[in-house]
Design goal:
Elements (H helix, E strand, L loop, with lengths): L1 H18 L10 H4 L5 E6 L1 H5 L3 H10 L2 E4 L5 H4 L9 H12 L3 E8 L19 H18 L6 E6 L12 H6 L2 H15 L4 E6 L5 H17 L5 E9 L5 H12 L4 E10 L22 H7 L8 H20 L4 E6 L32 H15 L1
Parallel strand pairs: 1-2, 1-8, 2-3, 3-4, 4-5, 5-6, 6-7, 7-8
Helix pairs in contact: 7-9, 10-11, 13-14
The chain binds alpha-D-galactopyranose.
Amino acid sequence: MKIQVQLLVVTFISFLMDTGYAQNTQPSTLKKEYESAFKMGAALNPWVVSGRDTLGQKIVLTHFNSITAENVMKAGPINPEPGIYNFAPADELVAFGKEHDMFIVGHTLVWHNQTPDWFFKDTEGNPKTPKALAERLRQHIEVVAGRYAGKVDAWDVVNEVIDNDGSYRPTKWVNGIGKGEELVKLAFRYASAYSPNSELYYNDFNAWRPAKRDGIARMVRMLQKEGIRIDGIGIQAHWGLNYPRNEYIEAAIDTFASLGVKVMITELDIDVLPLTKEGQVIGGVLRDPQFQLEEFEAFLDPYQDGLPDTVQKQLTVRYEEVFRIFYEKRDKIDRVTFWGVHDAFTWKNGYPIPGRTNHPLLFDRERKPKPSFDVVLNLPAKLSKT
Ligand code: GLA
């Protein structure tokens, strides 16, 4: 009897040790587990920053040591009309980051989306001359990057200017300035002048595609040759359960690191719904009303009542796969940032088809951690043991 009781006590203590209770009653956090590997970040909206989303904010304070402005620093939200500036939400985000000692990423100075038409037109409504547009670019960077100089740690200076084939995309900015190279040179020069102490990054989706990856690398080398500062490349990671292939992710990290700049995984989320191949459906064709019809809705929006176990498992496996790559390449990676905090607010609920129920992040709609969270959290310890 005595032996049995002893056995029970020993079993109970080893159970406590296994669950971490005996050593440390505090559950661990993402930022702690990855402290020696890379920063852990999330893109924030004003609900999270202000704490109106109390639980969302709590997740950020617990698990992340870097924040990115999801929308409030983009040209449209911050400067919707000539002379009209809406700085308050961006100021609040910066104050929140400072208060909690976080690495703050401003996003983004030069992008063709969410940038008002007036940027590109003169007072008569005609397209600006290249010279006038370059001056608009300079003023924008002076005002916005200048305001947060010494406050934000880094800027995504240029977003999404390289095409799938590695050439410059014919965006409003590129066409307006006349040459992609010229646009990029000006943008980084101005950013460096008006925010000299911030790190300066290039950020793009599908940066894993070999031809696009090489185009980005060419652009970075061009800047370096010109003596223009660029400090890092953000690989947007709007990925899915089956794409991109892992070897492409690895090759992109290696290629960018070989340029001698920092490499960041930015905008990470894993789409679980149909018809978002490659994470991007350009052109919004799926916004057509026919896709809102009942039969389409059932097909396109299958997980309105929650993720079935089978898909939850696939998501967990996928998160484990990509974090294994990140962790194994931690010497080359400076930061991993999720595009959002939890599934209730993810942009993937509205893109490329509005009004769906997507489940791409580590925290669900109730702000509860999913199985993928546990796997990501425990991975560094697991890999260090092997
Ligand atoms: C791109 C941009 C982000 C964001 C996402 C979708 O990746 O860089 O700012 O707009 O699209 O939300």
